[in-house]
UniProtKB/TrEMBL annotation:
Pfam families: tRNA-synt_1b. It comes from Mangrovactinospora gilvigrisea. A motif ('KMSKS' region) lies at residues 196-200. It catalyses: tRNA(Trp) + L-tryptophan + ATP = L-tryptophyl-tRNA(Trp) + AMP + diphosphate + H(+). PANTHER family: TRYPTOPHAN--TRNA LIGASE, MITOCHONDRIAL. L-tryptophan binds at D136. This is Tryptophan--tRNA ligase. GO terms for molecular function: ATP binding; tryptophan-tRNA ligase activity. The gene is trpS.
Amino acid sequence: MRIFSGVKPTGHPTLGNLLGAMQRWARIDQFRSDDPGDALFCVVDLHALTVPHEPAALRERTREVATLLLATGLDPERCTVFCQSHVAAHTRLTWIMESVVGDGELRRMVQYKEKSARQESVSTALLTYPALMAADILAYGAEEVPVGDDQRQHVELARDLAVRFNTRYGEVFPVPRAVRPPAGARVMNLQVPTDKMGKSDDTAVQGIIYLLDPPDSARRKVMRAVTDGGREVVYDPEAKPGVANLLDILSACGDGTEPAELATRYASYGALKSDVADAVVAVLEPLQARYREFADDPATIDKILRAGADRASALADPYVSAAYDAIGLLPPR
Ligand code: AQP
């Protein structure tokens, strides 16, 4: 079974990225086989070009995200950690994916609608982003894609494209499926609990916990989280999105006890917030300590990314060659 997932260096990674995806990737890595080619985790830097960006900031964020991936506990001996732009297979396969996806399908993607509505001028790359994401997944023949809820629609499209390609041109790609975490699949902004906690969101930043926030600041953000009317602690995401978000965070940071079960343990919002703050700080502190160790050793990060890209290329090239062949492109002789 092969697993692939990625994170965009579009901002400082957040608690949402950790609980919805990165923390889970590190656990998968610990429990799986010893073949490092079975699980691939990628800094998807090409995806960061779909929105306006500063080149110097992109380079910095790419390094930060790669370092954080290792700090979560991903072991480069047991999985493959690399940068998307270092592996040519992603862009080579994107063109093939663009030839099988309809423009209507791309325009229907929720993330495209939301992000294009916020921008004055929209790049073609923002529209074709899901074709690149399908290529990211299919280039490795990945079967499982562990993601947060916001990426499920894109994985569904990758699934459709795999089936369509295989039906039209012959079996090349395994059909992937999205895998969601049991808790923390959609961490919401602490100030606007109806909005996702997003790393590229520059509004309501007091509601976003960044993974490298000083613990005191993270604690303050939790204690100031918007809660809902009434006083009763119940898990009701519709009627009480603020409280439900805190319970989800507590569940994902802790031992996975169901949020509804956790709710029964609290008689006040204050006690709940205080436990959520403790739980968040308990997750962030060791992560930040490991981050600092890796950040002090950039040569090791470079070496890990280089080895990861070499391994990833070797795994992807046969799928890309098979797709080029199946679709009728003459192989070089
Ligand atoms: N709030 C979240 N809750 C749970 N999971 C989340 N993820 C992202 N936000 C949350 C998951 O983290 C993985 C990497 O995310 P990404 O880098 O692809 O996307 P992002 O952080 O959503 O990216 P942006 O650029 O910052 O966009 P916005 O501003 O829309 O948030 C994915 O598995 C994702 O599901």
